[in-house]
């Protein structure tokens, strides 16, 4: 199976990622992919379709989809919609694992769905307003959401084959988590193989099979995303940002940045200064 692995970075000021779905304008398809984070897709207006295990789940206003860690899924958004997405790092559920880094959520019983939707809406509203103390209120609401998930949506009677499937993808998730922690260091396929006890050839095939990308490209993508974030939140020089994020020099950083984002880091920073805010070029 060849599915893309999605790299998820939490918001700068939150322990999770919160955003409006990028397919909000319609005419959008997100191909099959997976990630280690647990995801909530909450449709506030409009409609879209979710696909998990070849099964379609149409979502209308007031409905949401729970996507489990390592669950392969895709999204079709043919028409405009207003959808809030929350992506929660798997590690936040570590006290509730029912297997090796395994937890499973289902909302087959809809009695608490309205409460969950209201929490998601309020989290996003408070975050956008950014009034004094917003971060504390967002965290309070977020932990109410986590409590609701583990108390009302968590399942502990999962079949062994489901756990095995998740375990296969978890192998790569362990490695990608390590890369995200050490991306600024001098990483290469050989050193990573020694760390995890695989041969370089096996590890290379694992990346290509489950992440749909080779190791070198994956590592560079992580470095670029962190560098992109630093450009929006730091006054460091481009040379310093390059070094902070694992690039050998500013020239290599500029080449890679332009190839991915179609503009130079200096041009992106200038755009930020002109707009007075961070823009999303991901």
TrEMBL record:
Keywords: DNA-binding, Transcription, Transcription regulation. Residues 173-271 form the HTH araC/xylS-type domain. It comes from the Bacteria. GO terms for molecular function: DNA-binding transcription factor activity; sequence-specific DNA binding. Pfam families: AraC_binding, HTH_18. The keyword Transcription regulation applies. This is Helix-turn-helix transcriptional regulator. The lineage of its organism: Bacteria, Bacillati, Bacillota, Clostridia, Lachnospirales.
């Amino acid at each position: 199976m060849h599915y893309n692995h999605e790299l998820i970075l939490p918001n700068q000021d939150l322990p999770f990622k919160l955003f409006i779905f990028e397919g909000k304008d319609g005419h959008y398809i997100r191909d099959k992919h997976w990630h280690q984070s647990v995801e909530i897709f909450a449709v506030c207006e409009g409609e879209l379709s979710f696909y998990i295990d070849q099964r379609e789940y149409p979502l209308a206003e007031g409905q949401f989809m729970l996507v489990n860690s390592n669950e392969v899924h895709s999204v079709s958004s043919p028409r405009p919609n207003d959808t809030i997405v929350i992506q929660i790092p798997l590690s936040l559920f570590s006290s509730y694992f029912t297997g090796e880094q395994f937890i499973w959520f289902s909302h087959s019983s809809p009695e608490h769905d309205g409460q969950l939707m209201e929490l998601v809406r309020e989290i996003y509203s408070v975050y956008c307003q950014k009034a004094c103390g917003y971060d504390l209120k967002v965290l309070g609401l977020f932990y109410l959401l986590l409590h609701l998930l583990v108390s009302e949506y968590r399942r502990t009677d999962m079949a062994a084959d489901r756990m095995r499937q998740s375990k296969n993808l978890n192998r790569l998730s362990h490695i990608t988590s390590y890369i995200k922690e050490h991306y600024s260091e001098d990483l290469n396929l050989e050193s990573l193989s020694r760390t995890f006890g695989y041969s370089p050839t096996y590890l290379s095939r694992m990346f290509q099979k489950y992440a749909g990308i080779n190791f070198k490209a994956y590592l560079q993508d992580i470095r670029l995303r962190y560098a992109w974030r630093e450009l929006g939140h730091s006054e460091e020089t481009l040379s310093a940002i390059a070094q902070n994020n694992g690039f050998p020099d500013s020239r290599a950083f500029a080449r890679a940045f332009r190839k991915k984002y179609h503009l130079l880091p200096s041009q992106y920073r200038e755009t930020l200064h002109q707009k007075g805010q961070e823009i999303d070029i991901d």
